[in-house]
Specification:
alpha/beta; Rossmann fold; 35% helix
């Protein structure tokens, strides 16, 4: 999209975040899910967030890679979470993988209500959260609201993975992209190392640009600069994902299988 338009959007959201949150109460089901999961988060462990985790393939793999952390996968859909296939690391070979590529930052109601009884999830999968292992939890919640709960909790979030992309290529839906959504500043405030992946390099470039635009407005308004720690990596931009040894998500596996390029933006705090 036009850089000037993106800059205007991002800077508006940085300045008006408090007003946005004031007029958007935390969804009751997300607050309830957070309250239920909170006692299961080891206070002695650092926290990793896997936002928009889809079928939780990435969450399960991350839990194995970071045994000393509590890894939390968040998705708004109990249908996707119920497909996590614990014995198979969330691998799904059906044609529904594309559904995971359009994680909206927030919705007022769950759009996956219309399912047949034949394909309905089990009673267990309808719980607001489930423990996959001793350090890996899956939560059904709205991302924006769960992020707010995390900030209030004071958790030490060391990594924030956003591996299922939500590019929304049509111009009229640009504000559904993470970096153009009013909640974008929350991602910067949560902190930790932020990692994003996509097959659309331009999407990741615009996310990086949004970090730079946020830094500019924080300085102009004499606000706390939550973007500054990420500025160096943001200016370097995304890189092609060349290590194909692990496909963290179903969309990566699909693109790896057909030889299509994928990209990663890694924003480390400096």
């Amino acid at each position: 999209m036009d850089p000037a338009e993106l800059k205007k959007i991002v800077q508006k959201h940085c300045v008006s975040l408090d007003r946005f949150l004031e007029h958007k109460p935390i969804a009751k089901h997300t607050q309830a899910a957070f309250d239920q999961i909170f006692p299961f988060v080891d206070a002695n462990k650092k926290v990793i967030l896997d936002s928009g985790c889809g079928t939780a393939r990435s969450t399960i793999l991350l839990g194995e890679m970071f045994p000393d952390h509590t890894v939390i996968g968040i998705d708004r859909s109990f249908v996707r979470l119920s497909r996590n296939a614990l014995g198979n690391k969330g691998i799904q070979d059906d044609e529904d993988n594309d559904n995971d590529n359009n994680q909206e930052v927030e919705v007022e109601v769950d759009n996956d209500q219309s399912i047949s009884m034949e394909n309905a999830p089990s009673e267990e999968s309808l719980r607001p959260f489930q423990a996959v292992s001793s350090n890996t939890l899956l939560v059904r919640a709205e991302l924006t609201d769960f992020w707010r709960c995390c900030l209030k909790s004071g958790w030490d979030v060391t990594h924030h993975f956003i591996y299922y992309p939500n590019p929304y290529p049509k111009k009229n839906r640009v504000k559904k992209r993470f970096y153009a959504h009013p909640s974008f500043p929350l991602i910067l405030q949560i902190g930790g190392e932020i990692s994003l992946r996509s097959n659309w390099e331009g999407y990741l470039k615009e996310f990086a640009q949004s970090v730079e635009y946020a830094h500019d407005v924080y300085g102009q308004k004499s606000m706390k600069d939550f973007a500054l720690p990420y500025l160096e990596d943001a200016m370097n931009g995304p890189l092609e994902r060349t290590d194909k040894s692990i496909a963290f998500t179903n969309f990566e596996k699909k693109y790896d299988d057909v030889g299509e390029k994928t990209f990663e933006l890694k924003l480390r705090r400096k």
